[in-house]
Write a structure and sequence with these properties.
Oligomer: single chain
Order of helices and strands: EEEEHHHHHHHHH
Strand order of the largest sheet: 1-2
Structural class: mainly alpha
Shape: elongated
Length: 354
Amino acid sequence: METTCPPGGTSPGCNEHPSAPVVARCVSCGRLMCAYCRLVYGNKNYCKSCLDRSRVSAPAPLHYHPDPGYPPPHGYPSQGPPPGYGSPPPPGAWTGGPPPPYYGYPPPPIPYRPARPVVFEGTPWGVGEAVIIFGIAFVAASILSVLVYTVLKSAFATTTAAFLLIFFSSAILYAFLLAGTFYSVKVRHGSHLSALGLRLEGLGKGVGWGIAVGLPLFVAAILVSYIVTKLFGPTNTDMVSNSVNKISGGGISPYLILLLAFTLVVLAPVCEEIFFRGYLYPALRNRMDKQPAMIVNGLLFAAAHFELIGFLPRFLLGWGLCYIYERNRTLGAPITGHAIYNGLILFLALFFRL
């Protein structure tokens, strides 16, 4: 880069210092420069006047390249830059290290709105990942449930086989669902289970919130169910709903009732809240405001039960459970509310034949 330009002994000398060899040419005006006149900006050679006239957005370092092989021209110091070039850089100018990147003009556009703050820390997974986990778990559980029901139907009466199928199919579904959830949290994203709301801190307050909100949710869901039943008729396509109706009709073994109660009051609230509120809701909440996240979570929660008549009551339940989880950040609150909701439905069917 510092070769004499143009080569040869007959070439003209530097415009300012004819006795000094030429080492560069100004990229702007084309004048020949020696090592004491040459200024480098952005890896390009400039003379002082052209560099002063240039209008750039960010200052770059000025490098001087004196050639120690011959004495400097008359009037120049033996070391350092020519006079007038040693003034300190302006505030904010680049003073060392790699040169700053040049982005050109105009500058990059400013984002229209700032990035959304993270509401639930340690939850980097996305909504699509949660949907994929549920889909895999549902398909796998459905295939295995068909095989289980084939065995149960050949060994037990129809009613007993139906109650046993509810327990086994639920256990299989939840096993796949929780396995996928814990794999995503612990293995794929390296997070902690506390990110799912599985913590003891604030558990007592959360249980109180679950009781306080679970009871009004149950009353509201009963009213919605009554309205839906009046509009569309008392049809039930859900196996659990049919089993609850059989309990209200009487003649069901107490052991089957206890098994159904364990499934609805313990197994379902714990496993469903870990996935829908602890895993799915933070993924929604970190990407949208509170009310849209609660509504979408409630819709997905109701749709995951595949029962048309109970869609609105379950949507209302899912929306309310998201609310108390948002307030408490512990799964003890929605698990309690969910258990109260399911328990009261079973209680009314068992003791009041409703």
